[in-house]
């Protein structure tokens, strides 16, 4: 199945990019950018302590008015800075588990730790570059992706 995915991907890149979602097929989420940035001692591995302090640092960065929750605008501004914009996620509703339009510190931490566990293929609590590369190889089957309608282009 992996070979099939790669074959389709290479076909797509060689034969033009008619489909708007083709260029981002290899990167399903921008959270890897975040986790690479959590590596504060620069040893190319992000351990649980670095994840904990990274969560604190990023929540503080996002919570501009210091009320302990992230409103939609605060999340959007943070996403633009930390995740390169909201094009490929993680999305606000990934964090806002109870859908009350506010992301608490707890919701923020729960979602990020879940994503770290998801990447941590050897379950040693540390994310290395190979964890991210392996993740990229685990893209969903392209036929499955085509079931979803394309995202509407923002008009503004
Ligand atoms: Ca580190
Ligand atoms: Ca806030
Ligand atoms: Ca919430």
Fold and architecture overview:
The chain has helices at residues 2-14, 31-37, 48-62, 72-82, 92-95, 105-119, 129-137, 142-145; strands at 45-46, 69-70, 103-104, 127-128. With 156 residues, it is mainly alpha-helical. Helix 3 (48-62) packs across helix 6 (105-119). The protein has one domain (25-135). The strands form 2 sheets. It has a two-stranded antiparallel sheet.
Order of helices and strands: HHEHEHHEHEHH
Mean pLDDT over the full residue set: 81
| Tally of alpha and pi helices | 8
- Bound small molecules, which ones? calcium ion
% residues in beta strands:
5-15%
The geometry reads as globular
Instruction: Tell me the total number of β-strands.
Output: 4
Distance between the termini: 39 Å
Number of domains: 1
Specify the structural class.
Answer: mainly alpha
Residue stretches low in confidence (pLDDT < 50, at least 5 long) are 1-18
- Strand order in the largest sheet: 1-4
Fraction of helical residues: 40-55%
**Gyration radius, to the nearest Å?**
17 Å
């Amino acid at each position: 199945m992996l070979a099939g995915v790669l074959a389709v991907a290479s076909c797509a890149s060689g034969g033009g990019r008619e489909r708007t979602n083709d260029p981002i097929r290899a990167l399903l989420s921008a959270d890897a950018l975040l986790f690479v940035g959590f590596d504060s001692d620069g040893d190319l591995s992000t351990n649980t302590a670095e994840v904990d302090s990274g969560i604190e640092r990023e929540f503080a960065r996002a919570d501009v008015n210091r009320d302990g929750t992230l409103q939609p605008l605060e999340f959007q501004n943070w996403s633009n800075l930390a995740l390169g914009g909201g094009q490929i996620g993680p999305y606000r509703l990934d964090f806002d588990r109870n859908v009350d339009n506010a992301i608490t510190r707890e919701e923020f931490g729960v979602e990020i730790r879940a994503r770290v566990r998801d990447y941590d293929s050897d379950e040693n609590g540390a994310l290395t570059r190979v964890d991210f590369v392996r993740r990229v190889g685990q893209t969903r089957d392209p036929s499955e992706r085509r079931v979803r309608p394309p995202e509407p282009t923002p008009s503004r």
